[in-house]
């Protein structure tokens, strides 16, 4: 079992698209287009392979996508998937360990990811809950990171803004306090809309709101 970048194994492109589409349905054209963004300069796709290289016994059993995180030496890990027939056999851990080795070999110091329901698995891998980060995705392939860092919001910029807020002058704080004191104590309410005219025709009830989405857990691991 080994890890290889997709941009070194374009012969497995369609097989990789099928593996991803089995988990997250998408048109093959769109999936192939996304996979072809994989390159050494990020974003890139890592493949978990089993069997002798370039032989009939070689099988693609896992995939993970890596992209750079703005303003740091971190990588964002996404689209982590293992072939459905091989789940529960430890390949997910092998895949993530391979991702970690690859990232460390490229000089990265942290892996970041999100999950809806696998937070316990990642916790066993050493990940902890963290703040959201900003992945640059394919933007880094045609725009310098310095430019992206200047125009995009990062956790570092937010911390800097918090520090600047704490260093406001007493006059600014006093002005803010006065503004708060001048705010109305009771909120203004618009009058309700008029009732619709009576009608003998039956109207169907309004559609129920869509169910709330699953919670997103942001996690990271220092490597």
Automatic annotation (TrEMBL):
Name of the protein in its database record: N-acetyltransferase 6
GO MF annotation: an example: N-acetyltransferase activity
Cellular component GO terms, alphabetical: cytoplasm
PROSITE patterns listed in its UniProt record: GNAT (PS51186)
Region annotation Disordered: where it falls in the sequence: 189-211
One Pfam family in the UniProt entry: Acetyltransf_1
Residues of the signal peptide: none
Ranges where the N-acetyltransferase domain occurs: 1-146
Database matches in InterPro entries: Acyl_CoA_acyltransferase, GNAT_dom, NAA80
Protein source organism: Triplophysa rosa (Cave loach)
């Amino acid at each position: 079992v080994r890890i290889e970048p997709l941009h070194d194994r374009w012969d497995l492109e369609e097989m990789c698209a099928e593996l991803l589409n089995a988990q997250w349905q998408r048109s093959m054209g769109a999936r192939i287009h996304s996979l072809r963004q994989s390159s050494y300069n990020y974003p890139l796709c890592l493949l978990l392979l089993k069997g002798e290289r370039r032989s009939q016994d070689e099988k693609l059993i896992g995939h993970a996508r890596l992209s750079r995180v703005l303003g740091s030496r971190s990588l964002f890990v996404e689209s982590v998937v293992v072939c459905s027939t091989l789940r529960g056999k430890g390949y997910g851990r092998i895949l993530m360990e391979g991702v970690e080795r690859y990232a460390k070999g490229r000089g990265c110091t942290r892996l970041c990811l999100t999950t809806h329901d696998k937070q316990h698995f990642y916790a066993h891998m050493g990940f902890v809950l963290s703040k959201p980060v900003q992945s640059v995705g394919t933007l880094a392939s045609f725009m310098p990171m310095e430019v992206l860092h200047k125009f995009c919001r990062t956790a570092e910029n937010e911390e800097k803004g918090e520090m600047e807020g704490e260093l406001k002058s007493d006059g600014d704080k006093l002005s803010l306090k006065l503004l708060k004191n001048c705010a109305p104590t009771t909120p203004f309410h618009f009058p309700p809309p008029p009732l619709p005219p009576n009608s003998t025709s039956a109207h169907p009830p309004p559609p129920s709101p869509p169910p709330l989405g699953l919670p997103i857990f942001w996690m990271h691991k220092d490597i």
